[in-house]
């Protein structure tokens, strides 16, 4: 069997490859075909901006555009032809089809000529040049509506046709009636949506701070908190923690209490602010922050408690919020691994004064590159972060404070908006897979499975972490699974207090549960693209490795 990756392949499966192979879907989107054609013909006329000049679509050939147009007409004709022939008769139907082709070709010719004479490479530019700027939104809205209409149309066509077709072809059921295959077909429709979003950014050439950033911030804010205004996008999860702490006034002389069992970025970002990181161990069962250790670490300098919702689970937010309230401390959640996870039905990331999310590609909500976001209760903190992340400026060249270049990339924002719509479905699949792992592995001796309290936590299973005990056992199981082509990982092999970066800082402290976990843990694949068959194979191999 093929090797099974540890992290989700969704990012690549949803990329342009899908839409490019699904040529009938993309070629039938006439709006993009026409703008391709138009930009092709006008590319030689004189590209007005260097950003557009670098646009890959400007290099398409006349031949490509002609084939694309013909494909569009023939594709549209294929759907309509049977009806036309039946109701109008063969001769009239063919005559109508030819008339449609001539009208379309004439319209395209007109557009090309208009494009050449006005030197406008895009529909929007052409509208501005011929009708005036105030008509541009009308064109934009109609293109958006048409694109949405096309996507919805294809969803309906697929849904209507797939069931009877599959049932007829494979009456007893087969791979082609399986969930994995139907999922792939759905991706063939979703892929173009991501493509469409990316092309919208490319067409606008608004690569920094485009409207897609604000749109994603609104959507993610509503997803986590139920309200707009509480999100600022940024460059990655590490910077999200740094910006949140800095905006809350954390710096030199302050202490931030977090946990030893976490990714290094949590602690790096604390110490980057100039504050001191104070670590507590994790709970031996849940592997989340051991809240019973927090109070003994509080000093006059303590300013923040930072729980980390590791592996897609939640820290004990009742305990953390209670301690913070009694000691008048701020709470900043590191929710980088837990997009959509809830504690008592409330999304993690909405409890504290602020929360940081990583949108690294392998995360439950991942971009097509580095990305991150901060959620904050107080909208003034969000405004402060928006200034900090953008070179300390709100108005260009008016630098109110020493800032960073930690902005969210417009392309990533566009991709994340589309992917956010799938997050709940992907998390549901992760939950299904976790339940199947638990059913398949709970009787295996020498194996500790993830533990959580379902009365409080609804995990979203960023990782599925097994504990096998000793370092020797861990290494032998790792080797066996890798040998079987399974992508495994260790989160994390060296506890943060023992990394070289903090060799001096924590040399007198120990965190026995975290340190034992570091040598005895294995993460096995869990991601929405994992099929039942692949998972059964993994379960079999884990059992064999531990036998
Ligand atoms: C718990 C935690 N915090 C912070 C980060 C940092 O996020 P990024 O890689 O996007 O900088 C990660 C990323 O893996 C993480 O898992």
UniProtKB/TrEMBL annotation:
A cellular component annotation (GO) from this entry: membrane
Similarity comment text for this entry: Belongs to the DegT/DnrJ/EryC1 family.
Transmembrane stretches, start-end: 88-114, 135-157
Keywords attached to this entry: Membrane, Pyridoxal phosphate, Transmembrane, Transmembrane helix
One Gene Ontology biological process: polysaccharide biosynthetic process
Annotated ranges, domain Amino acid transporter transmembrane: 59-166
Entry GO MF terms: pyridoxal phosphate binding; transaminase activity
UniProt keyword Membrane, yes or no: yes
Principal localisation: membrane
Source organism, top-level taxon: Eukaryota
Localization per Swiss-Prot or TrEMBL: Membrane
Organism whose genome encodes this protein: Thecamonas trahens ATCC 50062
Record protein name field: Glutamine-scyllo-inositol transaminase
């Amino acid at each position: 069997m093929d090797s099974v990756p540890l992290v989700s392949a969704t990012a690549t499966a949803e990329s342009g490859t899908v839409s490019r192979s699904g040529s009938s879907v993309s070629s039938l989107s006439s709006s993009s075909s026409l703008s391709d054609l138009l930009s092709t013909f006008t590319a030689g006329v004189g590209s007005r901006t260097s950003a557009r000049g670098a646009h890959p679509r400007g290099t398409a050939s006349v031949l490509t555009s002609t084939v694309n147009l013909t494909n569009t007409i023939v594709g549209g004709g294929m759907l309509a032809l049977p009806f036309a022939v039946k109701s109008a008769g063969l001769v009239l139907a063919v005559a109508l089809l030819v008339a449609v082709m001539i009208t379309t070709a004439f319209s395209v010719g007109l557009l090309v000529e208009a494009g050449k004479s006005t030197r406008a490479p895009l529909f929007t530019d052409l509208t501005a040049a011929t009708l005036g700027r105030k008509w541009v939104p009308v064109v934009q809205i109609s293109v958006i509506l048409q694109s949405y209409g096309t996507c919805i149309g294809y969803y309906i066509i697929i849904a209507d046709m797939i069931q009877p077709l599959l049932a007829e072809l494979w009456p007893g059921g087969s791979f082609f009636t399986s969930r994995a295959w139907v999922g792939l077909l759905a991706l063939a429709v979703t892929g173009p949506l991501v493509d469409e979003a990316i092309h919208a950014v490319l067409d606008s050439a608004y690569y920094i701070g485009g409207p897609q950033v604000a749109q994603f911030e609104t959507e993610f804010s509503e997803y986590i908190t139920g309200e707009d205004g509480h999100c600022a996008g940024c460059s990655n999860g590490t910077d999200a923690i740094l910006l949140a702490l800095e905006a809350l006034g954390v710096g030199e002389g302050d202490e931030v209490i977090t946990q030893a069992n976490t990714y290094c970025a949590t602690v790096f970002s604390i110490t980057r602010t100039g504050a001191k990181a104070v670590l507590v161990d994790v709970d031996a069962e849940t592997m989340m922050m051991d809240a019973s250790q927090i109070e003994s670490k509080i000093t006059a300098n303590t300013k923040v408690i930072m729980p980390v919702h590791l592996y897609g689970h939640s820290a004990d937010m009742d305990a953390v919020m209670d301690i913070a309230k009694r000691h008048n401390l701020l709470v900043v959640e590191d929710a980088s691994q837990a997009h959509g996870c809830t504690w008592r039905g409330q999304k993690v990331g909405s409890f504290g004064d602020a929360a940081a999310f990583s949108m690294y590609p392998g995360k439950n909500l991942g971009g097509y590159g580095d990305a991150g976001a901060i959620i904050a209760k107080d909208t003034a903190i969000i405004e402060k972060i928006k200034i900090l992340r953008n070179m300390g400026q709100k108005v260009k060249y008016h630098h109110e404070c020493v800032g960073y270049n930690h902005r969210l990339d417009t392309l990533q924002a566009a991709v994340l908006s589309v992917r956010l719509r799938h997050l709940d479905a992907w998390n549901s699949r992760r939950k299904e897979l976790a339940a199947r792992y638990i059913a398949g592995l709970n009787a295996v001796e020498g194996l500790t499975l993830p533990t959580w309290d379902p009365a409080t936590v609804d995990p979203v299973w960023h990782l599925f972490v097994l504990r096998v005990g000793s370092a020797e056992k861990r290494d032998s199981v790792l080797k066996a699974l890798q040998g079987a082509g399974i992508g495994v990982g260790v989160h994390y092999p060296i506890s943060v207090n023992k990394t070289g970066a903090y060799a001096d800082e924590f040399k007198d402290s120990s965190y026995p549960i975290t340190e034992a976990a570091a040598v005895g843990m294995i993460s096995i694949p869990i991601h929405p693209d994992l099929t039942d068959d692949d998972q059964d194979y993994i379960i079999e191999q884990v059992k064999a490795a531990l036998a």
